[in-house]
Amino acid sequence: MLPFCKTKSRAVANLFESGAISSCVSTHASHACETPRQAEVWWTRAAWRHYNTSTMCLQRLHGRLGLRYRAIGSGELLRRDMFLRAQGLRLAYDALLASMGPLTFNKYLRHLWHEARIVFFVRSCLLHCDADQRLKPTLSSRAKCLLPLHNMPEFGAVFDCVSREDFVSEQCVA
Questions:
Q1: What are this entry's molecular-function GO terms (predicted)?
Q2: What is the pLDDT of residues 81-110, one digit of tens each?
Q3: Helix pair 112-131, 141-150: axis angle to 10 deg
């Protein structure tokens, strides 16, 4: 484990590890279910409209983060990769919240919640940076890390980034 990820409590390490890995797994599981050429089979019109709105928002966020020219792919593959990474992190964080959230009422574990969220976001970033081993990945390693994080208001709140006027975020995938 990296020195900045060391924790005093093994419970926190287990929770952030499970959550961060779930983020990557849910991203890759989404790829297995998708058939890009037959979208009408899997998608309702409302779902397709929501997907298009979300991916356009993610493309804007990608550009606002200064990552525009670092993307190796373009078109639908790029939008799909952005969406799946943002959705995967959202699902994993919601699972972490569901499993750890009730523990925050325990006076002995309450102080671990902030640390657990910090480590969750750091670990998920590290996993997303290294998760794609293709020769020509769709997104740069930096984009794989930053784009899903800047999509989540919880990330800005945990690291107190929202108080900075130059902090870029937009919730494209909820």
A1: metalloendopeptidase activity
A2: 899 999 999 999 999 888 887 877 888 788
A3: 140
